[in-house]
Design goal:
This protein has 17 helices and 9 strands. By secondary structure, it is mainly alpha-helical.
Length: about 450
């Protein structure tokens, strides 16, 4: 991670960032109409399954995002020569993710193969870091500061990229949902990068925003184009790069909390990885009914997903459902800003009173959102619960676990701090408890629907 002070950025560099933004924006915007026509001409279309008319929509529109990223990143290389190594690895990671997505759009890869391939997507970052071409720093956690994972953390990089890429892919399926929630997340990440003072993070968030805005214009309800796996995997990999290169992993985790929750629900209820097209009818999470309304399945064996959780309080039209996703994304964005401020406070660069003031200020729009979107109150409560428990656990770890005189576990390739290993294991019971609370909440809502139908 590089700070503004280290590069001595000024007005000229700000102008360069504006130029990069408009380049990515215009390239993506101009490509999309032609790409939509081309995909329809070639028969690369999908059916909008959340509308009774089942209109044909152009697929693989995420190619426009990839092209926009390539062009804007290439301009960045010319304008910021000191950042060439990290921009090249960013580009290579995005291209690899997009390639896997294109193959999956054409061949329909089995889930296990797609997971393995997305893990490989993170290898350019791992290899470049291993040989010193770039430097990926250990994450900074609120209250704990920089973790002692210098040797082991690089080995986790491919899995981090795979998690974000597949989490984005698993929640996609509704008009404007994937591109809209990613756009909201990246806008908040830009704020977090400014607070954290990370040049790489700011550059890549600006590039991401520049291509997501025009794509969202065509992907929002009623959609004219679908991203395809080329788009969803690319968006997820893009966010993972922002996390790793900008050293804001905690902030990215908070902004993507909705996607991570959904993935956790799906994997636990399906007991593994499955393509949505291969999920049996009895396990479908939602059902399309009259007038394009969508309702939650009340089948016990149905997949537990975030859309099903929102719809458990009654049917909604697609746009209304997606608006609930946006509302959750905005609140998750608030979480990311607060988490970043705590990271800065941990480094003793900000007063605690400033964080308290920000929390109070953000409380007002949060309450407004929860009043308007009553269906997400329980979900947000569960998110706040896990974040508060996480904070309490971090404080406990900082005061008690990290002070214990454990020796490091010496493996052949790395030394693992026993304190951190114990700390990680402490999170497992909390996650299990939180999951069972969520399941209980979900079935309370489903049973209310069943009683109404009777």
């Amino acid at each position: 991670m590089t700070t503004f002070n280290e590069l001595n950025w000024g007005i000229i560099e700000i102008f360069y960032l504006i130029l990069i933004f408009f380049t990515g924006f215009l390239v993506t915007l101009l490509i999309l109409p032609s790409l939509i026509r081309y995909m329809k001409k070639k028969g690369n279309v999908g059916y909008d399954i959340h509308k009774n008319a089942k209109p044909e929509i152009a697929e693989s529109g995420g190619l426009s995002i990839v092209i926009g990223l390539i062009v804007s990143s290439s301009i960045s290389i010319l304008l910021f020569p000191t950042l060439i190594p990290i921009i090249l690895i960013f580009l290579l990671t995005i291209i690899l993710a997009a390639t896997i997505g294109i193959v999956d759009d054409i061949k329909k890869l089995r889930s296990r193969y797609k997971i393995l391939l997305t893990i490989l997507t993170g290898f350019p970052i791992f290899i470049a870091n291993y040989f010193g071409f770039i430097e990926i720093q250990s994450p900074t956690l609120p209250f704990l500061g920089k973790t002692r994972l210098t040797l082991i953390y690089p080995f986790l990089i491919p899995f981090i990229v795979a998690v974000f890429a597949n989490s984005t892919n698993m929640l996609e399926g509704y008009n404007g949902e994937g591109s809209g929630t990613c756009l909201i997340a990246v806008i908040f990440l830009l704020i977090c990068c400014l607070i954290w003072n990370t040049v790489e993070g700011i550059l890549f968030t600006i590039i991401a925003i520049s291509v997501l805005i025009p794509f969202y214009k065509y992907n929002k309800f009623p959609a004219k184009v679908f991203p395809g796996d080329v788009g969803t995997l690319c968006m997820g990999a893009m966010v993972a790069c922002i996390a790793l290169f900008g050293s804001i992993e905690v902030a990215v985790f908070c902004t993507f909390l909705m996607h991570i929750f959904n993935s956790f629900y799906v994997l636990s209820s399906l007991k593994g990885f499955f393509e949505s097209s291969n999920v049996k009818e009895i396990k479908k999470d939602i059902m399309l009914i009259n007038d394009d309304y969508i309702k939650a399945s009340n089948q016990k064996k149905a997949v537990l997903t975030l859309p099903r959780l929102i719809l458990a309080k009654g049917p909604l039209k697609e746009k209304q459902l997606v608006d609930n996703f946006y509302a959750i994304s905005v609140i998750c964005g608030y979480f990311s800003v607060i988490a970043t401020l705590f990271m800065v406070w941990t480094n003793k660069k900000i007063d605690l009173i400033i964080i308290i003031i920000v929390i109070i200020i953000l409380l007002f729009p949060t309450i407004t959102i929860l009043i308007k979107f009553d269906r997400i109150r329980g979900i947000i409560f569960l998110m706040v619960l896990i974040l508060i428990l996480g904070v309490i656990l971090l404080i406990f770890i900082d005061i008690y676990i990290m002070t214990l005189p454990f020796a490091d576990l010496d493996l052949l390739f790395a030394k693992i701090p026993i304190n951190l290993l114990v700390s990680t294991l402490l999170f497992v019971p909390g996650l299990i408890l939180w999951y069972f609370i969520t399941i209980k909440y979900f079935w309370i809502q489903i049973n209310k629907i069943k009683r109404k139908e009777i």
